[in-house]
Write a structure and sequence with these properties.
By secondary structure, the protein is α+β, with helices and mostly antiparallel strands. Helix content is about 60%, strand content about 10%.
C-alpha cells in the first residue's frame, strides 16, 4: 500500500526499537551497567515518541480528505493498536530494570529460568511487521501463541517462588522476582493484543484468538470448502448477554449463503442449542438450523442458519402501517399455534421477583437514587424498596399460572425476525426458552416496545396502539383458558421488566418514567392484597408512553 509507506516505516522502526529494548533488558539482568540502564530509559522516550507519531498519522489518515476503503481503515486501526501495545512492552522493560534495584543481588534471578521469556518475546516481535503488512493469519496466530507459552512459563516460576516463600527468609528478593516475572507475563498479554490486531486487519472485525479458533473449528466441521482467508465477518445484533454474534460470508464467491456465528459462555450456548432442538420438534420452521457446535473449557460456539428478514423492532420503527399490521397478524397467528400446541395443565410460578432481586444491585449501581428506605411520619410508616419487593414476592406466591407453555423467555422485539416475502416470523436468541408462564413473554414484549428511545409523537402512538392490541390478544387467550390471575401476574411481570430495563438507560427522565410505572403497579398490587385477584384491573396506561 504505497499510501501507507510512511506509516510502515514508523512501525518498522518502532518494532526494532522495542526489540533492542528487550535485548538490553536481558543484558542488564546478566551484567548490570549504569550506561545500559540509561540507554533503556532514554530509548523508552523515543518509543513513546514513535507511538505519538504513529497515532497522529493514523488519525490524520482516517480523518483526512482521501477516500479510504474499509480495508485501509482497518489496517490503520490495527497499526494504532499495535503501536500502543509495543509502547507497553517498552514500559514493562523499564519497570523490570527499576525492580532490579530491590534485589540483594541481580544474580538472584539466576535461580529462575528467565531466558525463555525473552526468547519467546523476541521471536514474536520479529514477525509482527510481516504479519501486519502481508495480512498473514499464520503469523498472527504465532504471535498470539506466544502469550499462552509465556503464561505457562510464568505459572511454573510463580509456583516455584510461592513454594520458596514458605521456607526461605529473603522474602524481599522473592517478592521482587514475582514483580519482574509478572512484567514479562504482561508483555505476553501485549503481544496477544498485537496478534489479535493483525487478525482484525484481515477480518475487519475484532475477534479474540479463541473466537477465531472457534470460527475455524465450526467452519471445518461443516466441510463447506470455505478458506478462512476468504471469510468475511460482520458483527450484527448488539447483545447484552456477552455473546459474540456475527454474519459469516465467503467473500470469494458472490451470492454465497451467509451463516451466523455465535460464541459465548458454554452454559448459555449449550442451553440455546438444546432449546433450538426443542423448538424444532414443536415448530420446525420457527427457529434457525444448527449447522455445527463446538465446546471448549469455558466457552462454546455454533454456526446457525442466517434467517432472512428484519427484526420486528426495525419493522415497527421503519415500515408503513400495512406492513406492520401484517407482521403483527403473522406473529399473533404463530403464537396462537404455539400456545395451543404446548399448553400443559400444570401450575407454574412466574418467578418475576426472583429475577428482579438478582438484578437489583446492577440497577442501583446505575441509578442509586431509585433506592429508598423506610420512613416514619407519626404513626404512619412508608415501606422501603426491599420491603416492597418482599411483599410482592409474597403476592406472587399466591399467583401461580394455572397452566404452563413453552415460552421464548426473552421475547424482545429484537429477538423476533419478520420475513415479509415468506410471510413468516422467526425466533432467535433462545437460551432462556422453557416451559413457564406465558405472561413472561407478554410482559417482556410490552416493555421492549415501551423502552424504545423514540419520542416522535406519531411513532409513539403506533407503539402504544401495538401494545394495546397485543395485550388484548394475550388477555383473550387467558380468558379462553380460565386464567383468572392474568392481569395480576402481568402487573408483576411489567414491574420486573420496567425496573430491570432502567439499568440499560442513562436518559434519566426516560429511566425515571419506567421506574415510576414499576412503583405505580406495585402500589396497585399491594393495595389489592385482601381482594380476589381475579378482580384486579391492570391500568392500560402503564404500558403506554405519552409526552404529547
Amino acid at each position: 500500500m504505497p499510501y501507507f509507506i510512511d506509516l510502515e516505516e514508523k512501525i518498522r522502526f518502532m518494532v526494532l526499537e522495542v526489540g533492542r529494548q528487550l535485548e538490553d533488558t536481558l543484558k542488564i539482568i546478566q551484567d548490570p551497567s549504569p550506561d545500559l540502564v540509561d540507554k533503556v530509559k532514554s530509548r523508552d522516550d523515543r518509543i513513546d515518541n514513535y507511538k505519538a507519531v504513529i497515532e497522529n498519522l493514523c488519525f490524520s489518515r482516517i480523518h483526512g480528505e482521501e477516500n479510504l476503503n474499509k480495508r485501509q481503515v482497518d489496517f490503520i486501526r490495527a497499526t494504532n493498536i499495535i503501536s500502543n501495545n509495543l509502547e507497553k512492552i517498552s514500559d514493562f522493560s523499564v519497570y523490570i530494570v527499576d525492580q532490579l534495584n530491590y534485589l540483594s543481588s541481580v544474580d538472584y534471578l539466576d535461580n529462575y529460568n528467565y531466558r525463555p521469556f525473552f526468547q519467546q518475546l523476541s521471536d514474536a516481535l520479529e514477525i509482527v511487521v510481516h504479519g501486519l503488512f502481508t495480512r498473514d493469519l499464520n503469523y498472527a496466530l504465532n504471535i498470539c501463541k506466544t502469550e499462552f507459552v509465556i503464561d505457562k512459563l510464568f505459572k511454573r516460576v510463580f509456583d516455584q517462588i510461592i513454594e520458596e516463600l514458605d521456607s526461605q527468609k529473603n522474602k524481599q528478593d522473592l517478592i521482587t522476582c514475582i514483580f519482574i516475572f509478572r512484567y514479562l507475563e504482561r508483555m505476553g498479554d501485549a503481544l496477544l493484543n498485537i496478534g489479535e490486531a493483525v487478525i482484525f486487519s484481515v477480518f475487519g472485525e475484532k475477534l479474540k484468538v479463541h473466537q477465531y479458533h472457534a470460527l475455524v473449528e465450526n467452519l471445518d466441521s461443516i466441510n463447506n470448502g470455505i478458506s478462512i482467508q476468504d471469510v468475511g465477518f460482520e458483527s450484527i445484533w448488539e447483545s447484552r448477554s456477552g455473546c459474540r454474534i456475527g454474519k459469516v460470508m465467503d467473500s470469494s464467491r458472490s451470492g454465497s449463503q451467509a451463516v451466523l456465528f455465535k460464541e459465548g459462555k458454554t452454559r448459555k450456548i449449550s442451553r440455546e442449542k438444546e432449546n433450538i432442538e426443542t423448538w424444532k420438534r414443536i415448530f420446525p420452521s420457527l427457529v434457525p438450523k444448527v449447522f455445527s457446535y463446538t465446546q471448549g473449557k469455558n466457552s462454546a460456539s455454533m454456526l446457525l442458519e442466517f434467517l432472512p428478514g428484519c427484526s420486528l423492532q426495525e419493522t415497527i420503527l421503519t415500515q408503513d402501517d400495512e406492513t406492520l399490521a401484517n407482521s403483527m397478524f403473522i406473529l399473533k397467528e404463530t403464537l396462537t399455534l404455539i400456545w395451543h400446541d404446548t399448553i400443559k395443565n400444570k401450575p407454574v410460578s412466574s418467578g418475576f421477583m426472583d429475577q428482579l432481586s438478582q438484578r437489583i444491585d446492577d440497577i442501583l449501581t446505575i441509578h442509586p437514587e431509585f433506592d429508598f428506605s423506610e420512613v416514619g411520619i407519626g404513626s404512619l410508616t412508608t415501606l422501603s424498596l426491599n420491603s416492597v419487593i418482599r411483599i410482592l414476592s409474597d403476592i406472587e406466591s399466591e399467583l401461580k399460572a394455572p397452566f404452563c407453555i413453552f415460552i421464548h423467555g426473552d421475547f424482545n422485539t429484537s429477538n423476533i425476525i419478520y420475513n415479509q416475502k415468506d410471510q413468516q416470523v422467526y425466533f432467535i436468541d433462545l437460551h432462556r426458552s422453557c416451559y413457564g408462564d406465558f405472561v413472561q413473554d407478554v410482559s417482556v414484549f410490552l416493555v421492549s416496545n415501551y423502552r424504545k428511545p423514540v419520542f416522535d409523537p406519531g411513532v409513539r402512538k403506533v407503539i402504544n396502539r401495538l401494545n394495546l392490541d397485543f395485550y388484548n390478544f394475550a388477555g383473550q387467550f387467558a380468558a379462553e383458558n380460565a386464567d383468572n390471575t392474568f392481569n395480576a401476574r402481568l402487573a408483576l411481570g411489567l414491574i420486573r421488566s420496567f425496573f430491570t430495563s432502567t439499568r440499560f438507560e442513562l436518559n434519566q427522565e426516560f429511566a425515571l418514567s419506567m421506574y415510576q410505572r414499576a412503583l405505580y403497579l406495585a402500589d396497585k398490587l399491594i393495595a389489592h392484597r385482601n381482594k380476589p385477584w381475579k378482580q384486579f384491573s391492570l391500568p392500560r396506561e402503564a404500558f403506554k408512553y405519552s409526552s404529547f
